[in-house]
Amino acid sequence: EVQLVESGGGLVQPGRSLRLSCAASGFTFDDYAMHWVRQAPGKGLEWVSGISWNSGSIGYADSVKGRFTISRDNAKNSLYLQMNSLRAEDTALYYCAKVVGYCSSTSCYVYFDYWGQGTLVTVSS
Amino acid sequence: SYVLTQPPSVSVAPGKTARITCGGNNIGSKSVHWYQQKPGQAPVLVIYYDSDRPSGIPERFSGSNSGNTATLTISRVEAGDEADYYCQVWDSSSDHQVFGTGTKVTVL
């Protein structure tokens, strides 16, 4: 059974840092890309960042680029999100999600087949 | 950046058909995926590659995609289908994943 368990959320002051973790089990972790998706209270889903199976390809939403860093440790079956210079608008439930699909030279056909339950990040003074 | 527009809400009586649209520029050329999210729960994939259903998802859920609109159709709606629904695509110009604005389905 696929399981994704996020941790590391909490209350943090604006400008400070936080590191989220996602522990994966039930599948061959290093075969799959992994992503972070967040959801502000009462709002919709927002893609945050993604990383390929070997960390060779990484992407960020414009809203977090330069402040957040995604990484993974395939030996530990874990995904991470280092969040620096946090802002009030970063307050959200952060989900890690397993990705399935493929990319050709011109397009990508990828979707999120499993999601964790999320970890809540609250940025407030 | 690529924008996906969904109606904020759709109301449907039990046993009837709900249609949730996802509008985007030439979305028919992209692969669209749909997620169901019930209150307090993580999203669940209900349709991928425009019209494929994951195992465990009822046949009542179907999808289509053409032109500037993708559609998620829920037939014979049940009370348990009440949830928020999101469409998702990959945007080639930004190399980003993009989610729709979300639609709340209410079963009357």
Number of strands of chain A: 11
Chain-averaged pLDDT of chain B:
96
* Approximate strand percentage of chain B: over 45%
Q: Determine the fraction of residues in helical runs of chain B and give it as a percent range.
A: under 10%
Classification by helices and strands of chain A: mainly beta
Largest interface: A-B, 24 and 27 residues
- Report how far the terminal alpha carbons of chain A are from each other: 40 Å
Structural category of chain B:
mainly beta
Question: What Rg of chain B, in angstroms, do the CA atoms define?
Answer: 13 Å
Largest sheet of chain B: 6 strands, mixed
- Report the principal-axis shape of chain B: globular
* Topology pattern of chain A, helix = H, strand = E: EEEEEEEEEEE
How are helices and strands ordered from N to C of chain B? EEEEEEEEE
Provide a count of the helices of chain B: 0
Q: Which runs of chain A of at least 5 residues are low in confidence (pLDDT < 50)?
A: none
How would you name the oligomeric state of the polypeptide chains in this document? heterodimer
- Number of helical segments of chain A? 0
Percent helix range of chain A: under 10%
* General shape of chain A: globular
Q: Which whole number gives the mean pLDDT of chain A?
A: 96
Features:
heterodimer; A: 125 residues; mainly beta; four-stranded antiparallel sheet; globular; B: 108 residues; three-stranded antiparallel sheet; 0% helix
Provide a descriptive summary of the structure in words.
The complex is a heterodimer of chains A (125) and B (108). Chain A is mainly β and 125 residues long. Chain A is built from no helices and 11 strands. Chain A has strands spanning 3-7, 10-12, 18-25, 34-39, 45-51, 58-60, 68-73, 78-83, 92-103, 108-115, 119-123. In chain A, the strands form 2 sheets. In chain A, strands 2, 4, 5, 6, 9, 10 and 11 form a 7-stranded mixed sheet that branches. In chain A, strands 1-3-8-7 form a 4-stranded antiparallel sheet, with no helix packed on it. Chain A is globular and about 45 Å long. The mean pLDDT of chain A is 96. The mean pLDDT of chain B is 96. Chain B is built from no helices and 9 strands. With 108 residues, chain B is an all-beta fold. In chain B, strands 1, 3, 4, 7, 8 and 9 form a 6-stranded mixed sheet that branches. In chain B, strands 2-6-5 form a 3-stranded antiparallel sheet, with no helix packed on it. At the A-B interface, strand 5 and strand 10 of A face strand 3, strand 7 and strand 8 of B.
